[in-house]
């Protein structure tokens, strides 16, 4: 099978994903919880969803993250994952950074292959950069997102006639059965505790033989980072993480769900998908060298996200 998982190198480079306990500016001190030890981030650490670089690569006004304990969040605080509150800033910060522009998006496009004439649904499309790239390659695209603010950013990018709808992954979707040749779901499943309802709906709207192309947090990257930090995380558990993000000077509370690889593959097959590809891709060959931290510059691959191609057979 392409993209077979490989053992981590002796001194692994870990690129932390949303929900990772160690995500945050290198060199900054953080406590993972009240009882945990004080952690200082190694200089190789970057935050996957926003492409956090070591200090000399961070542009002014970028995105920073801080792990928080769920028990410490007051009940009257704003809700979690409120992308509406920082949609414009988030879209700008993640447009062409390393992790979004030169790793995740190129990997998704490579797995999609020739999409000319194919009807593609982008689940959790955000500001629409993947939708735009697929459309440029000849696909007929539709997108949905829970955040109306992010869809406003997507409409600015794609035009007023773009097929964009407010809908929530995990709830019934406003599309007939068998509508799409492909569904892309890039970095969205990790917001859900239960993948079952979401995958069932995505399977429903796919044509027979259609594909779900998904990317998720790499479970071993999170687990390895926890071990290095002295945390006693159970790799085989499904558990919730919380972080505070600062995006363009605005603070937002974010929460995510981590799970082991077998829980992911079990969910896919239970929903009627056949796994055809598991990929751990390299960053794009045209990545500007100035975007690469010194620890990555001479490497092609690193632990960050895990990519799947699933057939609705």
Molecular structure report:
The protein contains eight helices and 14 strands. It has helices at 87-93, 98-112, 129-136, 148-158, 196-205, 219-228, 261-270, 294-297, and strands at 15-16, 29-30, 39-40, 46-47, 63-67, 119-123, 140-145, 163-166, 180-186, 206-217, 239-247, 250-258, 274-279, 305-311. It has 313 residues and is of the alpha/beta class. The chain starts with 14 loop residues before the first strand and ends with a strand. It has a single domain (15-311), classed as Vaccinia Virus protein VP39 (Rossmann fold, 3-Layer(aba) Sandwich), CATH 3.40.50. It is 24% helix and 25% strand.
Any idea what the radius of gyration is?
Answer: 19 Å
Helix content: 10-25%
Structural class per helix/strand content? Answer: alpha/beta
CATH topology: Rossmann fold
Count the beta strands. Answer: 14
Question: What is the end-to-end distance?
Answer: 17 Å
The low-confidence parts are 1-61
Shape: globular
Order of helices and strands: EEEEEHHEHEHEEHEHEEHEHE
């Amino acid at each position: 099978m392409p993209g077979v998982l490989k053992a981590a190198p002796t001194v692994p480079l870990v690129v932390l994903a949303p929900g990772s306990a160690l995500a945050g500016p290198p060199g900054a001190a953080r406590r993972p919880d009240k009882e945990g030890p004080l952690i200082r981030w190694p200089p190789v650490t970057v935050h996957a969803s926003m492409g956090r670089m070591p200090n000399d690569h961070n542009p002014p006004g970028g995105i920073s993250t801080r792990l928080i304990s769920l028990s410490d969040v007051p009940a009257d605080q704003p809700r979690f994952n409120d992308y509406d509150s920082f949609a414009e800033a988030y879209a700008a910060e993640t447009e062409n950074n390393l992790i979004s522009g030169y790793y995740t998006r190129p990997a998704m496009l490579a797995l999609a292959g020739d999409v000319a004439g194919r009807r593609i649904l982008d689940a959790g499309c955000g500001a629409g950069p993947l939708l735009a790239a697929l459309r440029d390659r000849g696909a007929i695209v539709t997108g949905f997102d829970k955040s109306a603010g992010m869809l406003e950013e997507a409409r600015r990018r794609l035009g007023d006639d773009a097929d964009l709808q407010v809908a929530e992954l995990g709830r019934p979707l406003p599309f007939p059965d068998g509508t799409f040749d492909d569904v892309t779901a890039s970095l969205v499943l990790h917001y859900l505790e239960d993948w079952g309802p979401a995958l069932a709906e995505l399977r429903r709207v796919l044509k027979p033989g259609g594909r779900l192309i998904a990317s998720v947090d790499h479970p071993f990257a999170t687990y390895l980072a926890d071990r290095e930090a002295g945390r006693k995380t159970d790799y085989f558990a499904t558990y919730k993480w919380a972080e505070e993000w600062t995006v363009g000077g605005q603070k937002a509370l974010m929460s995510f769900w981590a799970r082991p690889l077998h829980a992911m593959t079990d969910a896919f097959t239970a929903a009627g998908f056949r796994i055809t590809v598991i990929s751990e891709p390299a960053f794009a060959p045209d990545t500007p060298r100035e975007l690469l931290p010194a620890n990555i510059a001479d490497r092609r691959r690193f632990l960050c996200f895990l990519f799947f191609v699933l057939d609705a057979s």
